[in-house]
Amino acid sequence: MAYHFHWSMDDILDLEHRDRRLYTDRIAALVTRGAGEG
Questions:
Q1: DSSP states of 1-38
Q2: What are 1-38's pLDDT values in tens digits?
């Protein structure tokens, strides 16, 4: 998440678990889709 959004570790850890999970799921979907296109 820090890589994709340029967030600090503190910003990431301050997120609620549900929100952090939502972001990681969306990032994973983007990475998977990008890998399929390449």
A1: -HHHH---HHHHHHS-HHHHHHHHHHHHHHHHHHHHH-
A2: 788 789 899 999 999 999 999 999 999 999 999 888 86
> Which domain covers residue 32, as residue numbers?
2-37
Domain count, the chain: 1
Q: How far is the C-alpha of 16 from the C-alpha of 5, rounded, in Å?
A: 16
Are 27 and 16 in contact, with CB atoms under 8 Å apart? no
